[in-house]
Amino acid sequence: MDIGEDFITPEFLNILFFQQKNLVIFPYVDLKHLHALEIFATGHNIVDLESTVLHDLKNILEFEASNSYSQNPTLYFIYNLDTPKVKQIMALDGIRCILNSNENISELVNGSRFVFYNKKNGTFLNYLETNLNFEKSLISSSTSPVMLQDSIQNIKSTATRIFEQMNLNSSEDKVAALLKDYDTDYWEKILGFTSRYYHIQLPNVSELLKYSPDTSSVKLRAKDLHDFSDEYELIVSKNKALGKEFVQLIHEYRSERVNSSHLELEELFSPLRLYNYLRNRHWKEGIPESFIKDWSEMKLSGYELSEEDIMDFEDICS
Predict the structure, then answer these.
(1) pLDDT under 50 in the chain at which residues?
(2) Which pLDDT score, from 0 to 100, does residue 184 have?
(3) Structural domain of residue 139, as residue ranges?
(4) Model pTM?
């Protein structure tokens, strides 16, 4: 049985979004679940093509690739493909697509422009391992697909601003300033996406790091802050229902009571970073009683706590 969430992984995020590669999945995946991958297609127009009802698929794709006037490129979801048609599409230039076939097409693997994924055994055939720390962080810090999509869209928006600055021949410090909300470890990946999506040459990340906001004064301020990561981990891992409610409540608290301009981007979307911010700035004496009351009543979900849940809640609060 196909589950769309199976595709929400660091690898697919890296392949489709950051590397801007094409994907070939086999055997058959129903279209609804295949479209779970659309979350990684930010910046593209999505077009579905059913190969069995199109007699000249290759020419259609070639025509569309050379006659599109849209500001955004097109990403094609093409399904029910046989081996010859997959081979034809792979020979085309300037196309972005996700292909699905019910046939064993592993023999078509050639290079890395099209990454092959065997859904049956959950393995990639030609995906080169890479550092996925950024992708893992984006997914783990998102409590819903909508939040993950927002995080990806923010990266795309940053890339657009970088592209605009490059067109203005702006200095490197202005480009670096656009990346200030992200950990410097992730700058290279964002620049890589920007370069591939907009087809532009960008300054080397080592040059931009000279203008990184990680100055001694910033590091000094960070020394005064406490790390509440262990506390947060206990809260969200002890009990799944309680943890999920807690994360939703801190985001509600943030939207209602915290000036978002005071937050870094990751503090807006990462529950752990947000919790650390709240404990250091708003909840220095501990989590407020009013918040704990809302949490114990499962205010947002309306979930009714079992006796075991109540015991877990008491353990967390003790």
Answers:
(1) 1, 215-222
(2) 87
(3) 133-213
(4) 0.69
